[in-house]
Amino acid sequence: MGGTVLVTGGAGYIGSHTAKALAESGHTPVVFDNLSSGHRQAVRWGPFVHGDVRDGRALRQAIEAHSVTGVIHFAGLIEVGRSMTRPDLFYEHNVTGVAVMLAALADCGVGRLVFSSSAAVYGDGAGPGVAAIPEDAPKAPASVYGDTKLWGERMIAAHGRAFGLTAVALRYFNAAGADPGGLIGEAHDPETHLIPLAINAGLGRGKPLTVFGRDFPTPDGSCLRDYIHVSDLARAHVAALAAPMQAGEFQALNVGTGQGRSVLEVIAAVDRALGTPTPHSIGPRRDGDPPSLVADPALIGRRLDWAPRDSSLDHIIETAAAWARNPKFGAGAEGQSA
Ligand SMILES: NC(=O)c1ccc[n+]([C@@H]2O[C@H](COP(=O)([O-])OP(=O)(O)OC[C@H]3O[C@@H](n4cnc5c(N)ncnc54)[C@H](O)[C@@H]3O)[C@@H](O)[C@H]2O)c1
Description:
The protein is of the alpha/beta class. The chain has ten helices and 14 strands.
């Protein structure tokens, strides 16, 4: 137990929850972030270094100054739609950023890495009629964003084989919810994720929600996704750092519940949490939206000392709604959100 962990992108949504989980498990999280989309107020559980992951010198300085023994790499750009119009930025931050980070790890002798990957590496999922996606499903990213995550994984695996870096890539499905302590939560700008958009619509902020398609081959016709509470996701990173692995081993693991929830089920849960009907309308399908993206979570249960415990849909939505309602920190606060 213990040790100092560099958390790149640790001022962001998942990184800030992971910094808290690291501190709770006896580690010191050092957040390294350029604050391009993160929030300084979300750095609460250890030192902060303002830096960019494309700057190898700054990374080496931070690693040496804090005697870092492991790195969790969240830093990167996340909006799938924007990745199609600005592939240049996505390859630079998400792929060059990983290459520079890996060189810094080798220079400084850091032997342990956990990487934020994504279900986007699978593209359209496991195929029609297949319920859940295992790690060895075909990799066919449908976006530049997904492609950058797959390149990141490949670079890390090759680097590990060559230099003895031990690494886990966690392929998140849909991260959602907020820490129940109320100090940190999801505050992306622009927000593109269903749950905060539905809550904001229910609270009368922003636009009514559009459900993109009710004619999918799913039980209620809307898309199915696998929602994992951000606190469960944060604990998966701590477990991945501690997983017994051989030097140079690379392991990719899905992080999900294995249970698909439809857009209409999410809206019904938001109705329950807020006590009012969520204004929404049904629109056409969006290009490239697969009907179902649900993890097969069997492997992570075998490889890590981890299982989801906070990921019931109602708990996810209650914690996200509490965060959004918090006038000091929630989504309605100007410049205060974390
Ligand atoms: N949110 C999800 O559901 C989800 C799903 C799959 C994968 N991921 C991945 O998880 C990671 C974190 O996602 P998030 O939702 O917390 O996003 P976020 O935008 O809240 O956090 C990303 C953080 O990285 C920082 N950053 C970006 N570029 C940087 C750079 N060049 N140098 C230093 N810092 C930089 C930002 O300032 C921000 O604090 C990302 O890599 C994302 O691709 C997220």
